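Title: Request for sanity check on Cytochrome c biogenesis protein ResB prediction

Description:
We are preparing a figure and want to confirm that the structure record we downloaded matches what your pipeline produces today. Could someone re-run it with the sequence below and paste the raw structure tokens into this thread? We only need the token string, no images.
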Amino acid sequence: MNRLLRLLGSMPFAVGVLAVVAIAASIGSLVEQNQPLAADVGRYGLLWATSFRLLGLHDIYHAGWFLALLGFLTFSTGLCVWRQTPGMWREARGFKHHLGAEALRRLPATVELQLSEGQKAQLPTALRAGRWRWVGDGLTLSATKGQLRRLGYVATHLAIVVISVGGLADANLGLQLRLAAGRLHAAPLEQPPSELSPASRLGPDSGAFRGALRLAEGGSGDQASLAVADGYLLRRLPVAVHLRAFRVETHPGGQPSDFVSEIEITDPARPGTAFPLRVAMNAPARYGRLQFYQSGFDDGGSSVRGAWLLQGGLAHQPLQAQVGVSQALLLDGRPLTAELTGYKPRNLVAPDAPATRGWHEAFLSGAQAAQRVDLGPSLELRLRDDAGQTLTETVYVKPVRLDGRAYAVFGLAEASGEARFLRLPIDERGSLGDYRRLLAALADPATLHAFATGAPPVVAQALPHALAQFRRGGLTAVGDASNQRVLIELLSRLALHAWSAEHPGQPPAEGLAFVTDALLAYSHWIEAGKPALLQVDEVTPVAASVLQVSEAPGAAIVYLGMALLALGAALMVLCPERRLWVRESPQGVLIALAAHRPLDGLPDELHAFTQLILKESP
């Protein structure tokens, strides 16, 4: 047992454990923590994601082996400090007055001088000038200074113990033991909070935690969601939080500069009083033992009025919906489930993005020029069919100008990851009216008959077949590129004929550009699988703020440990330890200087001390 305690309390062993803890903790900076398994599989692959789960690397700071290692570090370093400090302090306070001249000559910085009686009398004065503590008299003196360095040594190692204790306090070991024992169960992420069992709920006095609190503007909440493995626990807060207002502050160029939540705290322990707090991205707020951080923002249930565009735009079906609420629909005879998932008030892209990167890349803007153009709000929704296949649709609410023309733009992303954009041409009134009327005219046999009456016989014979092919499968149903060009030319003439009937006196070039865009839009819609497109007429936005709420009783302990660490480092750097001996020898007076470790500057220090002695007082 003694040998084991000596091993655990040895400094090399404590340093080794500290290195292992540091390496393990650094993994938390490389592997994103507390992410669902599906997200980790998409990022790292199935093998690595499963390995991370087995090793606990997805939540390393709460992994059992990491907490055990941290506790082991605390015990080992604490035992080391306990065992080493008394002896180290006794050594620091001692003068080693027993050393004789022969032992001192073996030190790296020594000098032997012939001193006069007056110079010998200067020894105490030189020692006081150098702030030395000494014992002895005459020419047998032993001096020391810089003993506070030993206190710095103790403080730095004690700081590791204190910081580790703070980390263990914030890890909430009681909660981890309850999870390991099966007394608590993380609920699946898709399970709503109202359906959680008592085994997935925590009381307001359950120790340290960090959770998410989502509040719609004007709403209140008193429960935070704690991410645990691939699920979550619901922690009741000791107070109720009300979101009075949420706003996004922007730079002059339009980029967001800050997200600010104005909240009010209602404390049952202090009834009748609401305590206002302001929470921003880099300005957390505190109430009691709770700390509030601005984590993000979301849609709080914006209401949407619009219509579903069916058959490529030929038909429409009215819609009244709310973000976050699912709806069962029957569109074109197909049963679908639609869920509006989010409303985004701004979409910033570089002003030259459409010209330099292609129109579709403008909507996937990354790091670009500081000056940006706002494409306006967008709405995101998911359409799920009865087979479970999902299509994510992004609707840009306002017309988007590309290459000098206005379009209604829709982004489509399938579950397989394939993404594309559809753009439907907007008329001069800012609507899809001309586009829809053009499609209706192409579907009307009277339009085809009127155009074929004055057309060459070859065209009159080929056009019905070409139009039928186009309406069934778009341009891809025609075949090779040459056939597509012929089809486009025939359909463009027909469409231009129909468009000119609606716009007498308009320039043919403008009409040709419009009908070309319309035909391409319809073909791309067919190629995308004939999805239902949402035309948004009106949005009543409701913002939601996502706050991080934490209770960290170990934070004060960690701050104390950091203060000890800073103090210890300062003492070790600013208070170098030195020892000085003066002994009478046959050759005169021997003066030796030593430090706690070999230093190149010791001979210079010794020379400066002897110069003080050699300055004999008058």
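Thanks, this matches our download. The longest helix spans residues 64-93.
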